Amino acid sequence: xxxxxxxxxxxxSIATTRYVLTHxxxxxxxxxxxxxxxxxxxxxxxxxxxxxxDIVTMAAAAAEPIVARxxxxxxxxxxxxxxxxxxxxxxxxxxxxxxxxxxxxxxVVELKQACYSGTAALQFGISLVHRDPAEQVLVIASDVSKxxxxxxxxxxxxxxxxxxxxxxxxxxxxxEDPSGIFTADIMDFWRPNYRTTALVDGRESISAYLQAVEGxxxxxxxxxxxxxxxxxxxxxxxxxxxxxxxxxxxLLNYCGHEVDEAAVNRAIGHTTxxxxxIGNSYTASMYVALASLLDNADDLTDQAIGFLSYGSGAxxxxxxxxVVPGYRALLRSRSHREAISRRQDIDYARYREIHEHSxxxxxxxxxxxxxxxxxFRLAGLSGHKRIYEPR
Length: 391
Ligand code: COA
Description:
With about 400 residues, the chain is an alpha+beta fold. It contains twelve helices and 18 strands. The strands form four sheets. Strands 1, 4, 5, 6, 7, 8, 9, 12, 13 and 14 form a ten-stranded mixed β-sheet that branches. It is globular and about 60 Å long. Coenzyme A binds next to α2 and α6.
């Protein structure tokens, strides 16, 4: 635990997009075997953001019910993690701050380190609450994952946001010390400033991820963390859900444990349910896995969960959390399932149109057609500014 005060995740809420593309549709279009996606990489469908949806609208949709439940009086910081920023200077969290009517006495900042920065945001939030346990920190991870059409990465796109309220005496999960951390300079996935789609060396990325599993676990155990057997479940970053399976097998192997499929399924089973149908949501992915676990597993009270957060480039962190008694009464399982099930299926032509859509960059006035079913939307662009509004 962080000092004497228990600090961790007090509330957790996820949001995703209006549209969804199934891998069956993608496979039929490109003449691939759908089993490659559904079994080979563990993906069934992926969320597709409508033109009036982005990291801000998803983030505000995820955070709104948290502010409605707890109020904003104790929130003095908003940390927004993303690798698909909408601006190179202004923090996307300021738009969320405005949409949600948060007090002006708030600090708002954006963090970046590929898919890892959601965890950096969580740890920064914990540090701030440690300094003053009366304060709460709104941590948001929101991303739209986008690769080139026809590239291997295309099947591992997706989009989602997670909002978490970090607080003393948390109602859901206490986050504990120590953390095992790891950094290595690896070019496995990156997105130069001039590109809207990411570049990835898939094989290199899998091997870097597994290297990070070893590096973080080694540091974690050297700092006196739990034994592997003490964990009930493991939430891994999931660029595709099969990666959680690969990572856990690797960890078992590294620790000299027998690797059998039943043990792997017990450890990661419920963590992949949401990501298999949402796809990669970069910074949000591991916390979508946590929502999926809490919403779908049997009672986890007082059980330890291991978290492996990986961000290409590469930075990773392994840490533990313990599930708090009474957590089930506060879960948002129904709204999470509704957010996933109300998405509208689109065909390949519409997906392609959305994928290729880009806004003009001349600073003119461009209203965006109303498509989202979420509570907030990107209304348009004007004078090089993005204009958001409640739907
Ligand atoms: N039935 C069942 N499984 C099949 C199959 C079929 N018909 N065809 C292929 N597969 C399996 C392969 O054996 C492979 O499994 P393995 O990795 O366990 O061996 C898996 O499906 C993927 O096949 P592969 O040929 O490697 O696919 P690919 O070249 O299209 O690449 C990724 C897959 C995941 C590497 C690619 O989508 C990617 O790079 N995605 C981006 C990942 C990312 O974002 N990384 C950075 C953040 S961590």
